[in-house]
Amino acid sequence: MAIYSNDLKVIALCYYQDVRNNEDVLVGYNILSTSSEPNDVIDKGKFIDTLGNIVYNDRLVFKMINKDLTAFIKGYLIDVHGKFNISIESIILSKVDSNMYTTKVLFEIKNKWDTENRIIDLNLLSDDYENKLPTRFYSFKCKDKNYGNDLFGVMNEQGIKITEAQFDNIEEIKNKNGSTFFKVKKYKRFGIMNSDGSYVFEPNFDLLDLDYLKNGGYRLIQYHGYYGLMNNNFNIVIEPKYPKFYFLNKKYSFVKLPYDGYGTRWDFLDIQSSKELGLNIQEALEATLIPDFENNVTHEIPVKINYKWGFVNQYGKIIIQPKYSFVTNFSEGLSFTVIQTRNNNSVYPDNSAFIITRDGNILATLSKDLSSDIAQKNEFHDGFIYYKSKKTGKYGYLNTKGQVAIQPVYEEVGDFYNGKAFVNRLGTTYPIDKKGNRINE
Fold it and tell me: What is the b/e burial string over 66-81, where b = at least 16 CB atoms within 10 angstroms of the residue's CB?
């Protein structure tokens, strides 16, 4: 635990601090002062067990890193603007037994007054709470002398610094072969560092997403605002050139293409071959770009091709031909669509609205008057979809038959869930049922 003045308590003339292990069990006390004046410290502090036995006469327990590893400090109390803190002279990392007695000292880090970066904290970088890893690395923290912010460095298990405290954050990562690397952040940029302190990539990335399991075995990177991919061995497999990048599955991503003078375009990107499918998509509903690395769910993605909306699946196959002027995302297996024509030979009247199923079949056709009255639409929830009427300027609900189920009389509405939706009329918000009746709650 870090030691701050607000942790201090007074029992008679003794300043002390509880020491608890990682299971929050009390294991002893740091004795900081045996005087009413906290600056009067005897032998730079003591640690006693819960029975009052002195375990250490010259050091304090700083933090219990895991069940076998504890960091001690030697130091003394200082008064900083009326608040008492510990000035750390040295940090001792030791293996301890169940009674907190040292079985092996791993290393001791000594601070010097003439150094700029005095170490004030130590943490285990590896997720090794069971003390099983053969090699461990530690991050140490210092204060930036100019700005006062925290800076972090790395040392090995012998207490030898691999790098000085210069990073805003450090995270241990593994490559495909299990070798240790570090993700580092400096000046709001990210990089990758070897375990010897040299760089694989200097901190120049805007983004370095290490959640490779989520991303199908790849790491998403962003450089100067453009996205690309890195594999598990930190090799760049797709150059960062895409303004937007969505993982869909282990084979394909959906990307916004670099501007080429012909307007905005999107496409499917084959991750393994780094090739685009060439669909020339002008627009897509980005909310539908949901990753599915288990390939358990088929997603219909609304896309605009040649100024008409249709649907593709997450593998870039067109499943409903682009012929609509408007579509909603499929919800509950249904989509609200509109065909707008100016062709007298068209089988559809102008501004025809339909409710279609996932296979593209028409489930319901809205009347001409209703089709022309709809200004805004949502998605289906609980068998209803709300819409805004051009005539009233207010909201109502349609059912899956394409009929008005609840008249457009509300200033604000929400989706139906479990037979209930919240609406606002004349400044009052309340729930209604599927018949439009107010529910008293």
Answer: bebbbbbbbbbbeeee
Answering whether pTM is above 0.85, one says: no
Among the listed residues 176, 178, 180, 211, the one whose alpha carbon sits nearest the alpha carbon of residue 197:
180
Strands across the sheet containing 236-242: 207-209, 218-223, 226-231, 236-242
Q: What is the pLDDT of residues 333-369, one digit of tens each?
A: 999 998 875 555 544 556 789 999 999 999 999 998 9
**Alpha-carbon span 57 to 370, nearest angstrom:** 86
Asked if residues 419 and 440 have their Cβ atoms less than 8 Å apart, the reply is: no
Instruction: pLDDT band for 42, please (50, 70, 90 cuts).
Output: very low
* Spatial contact of 334 and 345, defined as CB atoms under 8 Å apart: no
Report CA-CA distances (Å) from 326 to 138, 339, 351, 353, 389: 56, 7, 10, 9, 17
The helix (run of H) or strand (run of E) holding residue 115 is none
Question: What pLDDT is recorded for position 4?
Answer: 34
* CA–CA dist 262, 155 (Å, integer): 52
pLDDT value, residue 78 = 62
Least confident of 89-98, 207-216, 324-333: 207-216
Spatial contact of 145 and 120, defined as CB atoms under 8 Å apart: no
Q: CA geometry: angle at 267 spanning 263 and 269, to 5°?
A: 140
Q: DSSP labels for 208-256?
A: EE--TTTTTTEEEEEETTEEEEEETTS-EEEEEEESEEEE-SSSEEEEE
User: Among 330, 417, 408, 422, which residue's Cα sits nearest to residue 373?
Assistant: 408
Which pLDDT score is estimated for 262?
77
* CA distance linking residue 377 with residue 50, whole number of Å: 68
Helix and strand numbers (H, E) in the chain are: 1, 40
3-class secondary structure, 100? coil
Q: Per-residue confidence at 83, pLDDT binned at 50, 70, 90?
A: low
Assess contact for 265 and 277: CB atoms under 8 A: no
Q: What is the DSSP string of 146-162?
A: TT--EEEEEEETTS-EE
